[in-house]
Design a protein that fits this description.
Elements lengths: L1 E5 L11 H15 L3 E7 L1 E2 L2 E2 L7 E4 L2 E6 L11 H10 L5 E5 L4 H10 L5 E5 L6 H5 L3 H18 L1 E4 L2 H10 L5 E3 L19 E6 L8 H9 L5 E6 L4 H13 L6 E3 L5 H10 L2 E4 L8 H8 L4 E4 L5 H6 L3 E4 L3 H13 L1 H18 L2 H13 L1
Parallel strand pairs: 1-2, 1-7, 2-6, 7-8, 8-9, 9-10, 11-12, 11-14, 12-13, 14-15, 15-16
Antiparallel strand pairs: 3-4, 5-6
Helix pairs in contact: 2-3, 7-12
Length: about 375
């Protein structure tokens, strides 16, 4: 099968978070299974551009990747060169799988792709949630939706990474046909070691963004009666990080927080292994790769009910699920601090549950089956 994936940023642009890693892993898995996999992406790397040669094919782990120059250095990722190539080549593919929404790059790419004979699949990657729809340039999103975005989406096949995202998308576009398949992640086969922390240590490992609910977590921490350390591993807009640091000072919890910035792949899994609990109190999260990564390292998780994998966590007793009410977050943190037996059980059995649920080869086969439909 000949498959084209379109995504605004591809590895090594890891600063864009989970989608960059999970999409690349999907592409690599499909290529390893004998499919011809091409990727059209841009040179986007945050406020800079990747050090690649635009417009040429680069073999990245068996995947044919073309990084196209973008003419805007922001989240719109406008790339006429990509669109021109897509007009010429869309009909060459059996499937065109587009990842993310609202950026002009993908809105136009989807419209072009729909004129081809290929099956067009759209993975919103959390961009069609009610929270995202109503926040950050909401008038711009509503205008796109009204002027044709909705019609384009409905003509595509929906790919949601969790059941909650699927339901939310179908609430926005009733009757939208699609499927649910989780992200595919590369998980290392390294030894799980128990943490040896001086105090209960929790870790936030994600992009630092207002939707992650860090303010809620900070307030909850300020109300705890036991000693706790919060490690924040990630980066974001410097102005927002300074706001969070100011809030930490006002709540008298600055000494409890260790800001370590973005960490590479090896350090990421080591940090998760060293923590007692991984925390993600997001307002919205369509999947959350870090939940899978943390549990793979045997570290329990505390997630808000707005995280796509919250049902999975609750059903398998792999941690705690909270609302965004401060009292509830405080209560769940207190429970986790005292639940040494549960934490030990998750450390011993979490990886096996992850292996069973997110087995790469099984998921690759399921993606192929959906492509065939």
């Amino acid at each position: 099968m000949k498959i084209l994936h379109i995504i605004p940023a591809y590895k090594p642009a890891y600063g864009y978070g989970g989608p960059t890693e999970s999409v690349s892993r999907l592409c690599e898995g499909l290529a390893a299974n004998g499919h011809v996999v091409d990727v059209y992406t841009t040179t986007a790397n945050g406020k800079t551009e990747l050090d690649v040669i635009p417009g040429t094919i680069t073999n990245v782990e068996g995947v044919n990747v073309i990084y196209f120059k973008r003419i805007t250095g922001d989240h719109t990722h406008v790339s006429p060169a990509l669109w021109r190539r897509l007009v010429k080549t869309a009909s060459h593919y059996d499937v065109i799988h587009i990842h993310s929404w609202w950026n002009i790059l993908n809105v136009m790419a989807a419209r072009i792709a729909l004129f081809s004979k290929a099956k067009v699949i759209l993975a919103p990657r959390g961009m069609l949630s009610g929270y995202v729809f109503e926040s950050g340039n909401s008038s711009y999103k509503k205008l796109i939706h009204k002027l044709g975005g909705r019609k384009i989406l409905k003509k595509c096949v929906l790919h949601a990474t969790a059941q909650s995202e699927y339901m939310e998308c179908r609430k926005l576009i009733p009757g939208w046909q699609g499927f649910v398949l989780p992200n595919i992640l590369s998980l290392p086969d390294i030894e799980i070691k128990g943490p040896h922390n001086e105090c209960f240590t929790i870790i936030f490992m994600s992009r630092i963004h207002h939707k992650k609910g860090l303010e809620k977590l900070f307030i909850a921490i300020s109300k705890l009666s036991f000693n706790l350390k919060l490690v924040i591993a990630g980066d974001g807009e410097e102005a927002y990080i300074q706001q969070l640091k100011q809030l930490a000072n006002e709540l008298n919890i600055a000494s409890k927080i260790d800001w370590i910035g973005w960490v590479n792949r090896d350090e990421k899994f080591e940090r998760l292994n060293q923590s007692d609990l991984c925390v993600l109190t997001s307002f919205n999260e369509n999947f959350a790769n870090v939940v899978v990564e943390s549990l793979h390292m045997g570290t329990a998780v505390l997630v808000s009910e707005n995280v796509g994998l919250s049902d999975f966590v609750g059903e398998n007793n792999l941690g705690w699920v909270c609302t965004l009410d401060t009292v509830d977050i405080v209560g769940k943190l207190n429970e986790a601090h005292l639940a040494t037996q549960k934490l030990d059980h998750i450390r011993k059995h979490g990886r096996e549950i992850i292996r069973t649920t997110f087995h790469e080869q099984v998921l690759i086969t399921k993606y192929y089956e959906e492509y065939l439909k």
